[in-house]
Amino acid sequence: MADLKALPKGKWFCCKDCERINIALQHLITREPETLSDDLLTLLREKQKNNDNTNSETDSNSEMKFVVLSGKNATREIRKYLAQTVDIFHEGFDPIIDATTGRDFIPSMVYGRKIWSQDFAGMLIAILTIDSNVVSAGTLRVFGEDIAELPIVATSKGNQGKGYFQLLFTCIERLLSSLRIRKIVLPAAEEAKSIWTKKFGFETLDADQVKLHLISQFKWVKLPTLKMG
After folding, report:
1. Residue 202 CB contacts under 8 Å (≥ 6 apart), including other chains
2. DSSP readout, 100-140?
3. Which helix (H) or strand (E) segment is 172 a member of?
4. How do residues 1-39 score in pLDDT, each as one tens digit?
């Protein structure tokens, strides 16, 4: 990490790893949606076969894809996905209101906008689609090689309980692993903590652990937080 005496002009990075990750992410958001691999689809269908809900199995002719998007300078096609994502988040969450402006954080997070002291320009959206319709989505922000933040995740109401978020999370995990990012943090409501800890292997962070993991250096979404290392 550089010992800076003053802020450099133009675009700069604190270290080579941050530059490497930024280049990879910028390349990622320009790619077309990726068709899911057979191993992931097999895992999904096995889960759905074991589900008591007989209507949960995905049509074998459905096309499932994973893609990471940025709301900044989005094309019309991308904005369609982002609008669907906002709707899914609003199905699952009450508006997250900024105390200063009274505006809802959720659309700003999805479209990468700034609200007062919160700048979501670096926020990315990871989505899982079936036949070009968003079924599960998560906001994703990377803070160098140490930490990635997953502030909001949700699955559309008609598709909950079918394994789609587990599939999306696996795609996100593989992506972050390929970038050599060490940890994922996320805020979790008290009633949802057990799902994250028991199903996904997260651990609850206390205040001392937050400092230990250097999260206090970043302006992140401050809600009760869990970590997966």
Report:
1. 184, 186, 188, 196, 226, 227, 228
2. TT--BHHHHHHHT-EETTEE-TT-EEEEEEETTEEEEEEEE
3. helix 164-178
4. 556 666 666 676 677 778 788 888 888 898 999 999 888
Sign of the dihedral through C-alpha 55, 58, 62, 66: positive
DSSP state of 217: G
H-assigned helices in 13-69: 16-28, 38-49
Residue type at position 223 = L
Model pLDDT, residue 77: 92
Residue 98 CB neighbour total at 10 angstroms: 15
Asked if residue 58 lies in contact with residue 162, where contact means CB atoms within 8 angstroms, the answer is yes
Q: CA 56, CA 49: separation in Å to the nearest integer? A: 8
Range with the largest mean pLDDT of 16-25, 90-99, 176-185, 214-223: 176-185
Nearest to 81 by CA among 33, 119, 120: 33
How much is the pTM?
Answer: 0.80
Question: Is the dihedral angle over the CA atoms 92, 209, 124, 114 positive or is it negative?
Answer: positive
Q: What is the DSSP letter of 199?
A: H
Residue 136 backbone phi and psi in degrees, to 5: -150, 145
DSSP annotation of 210 reads H
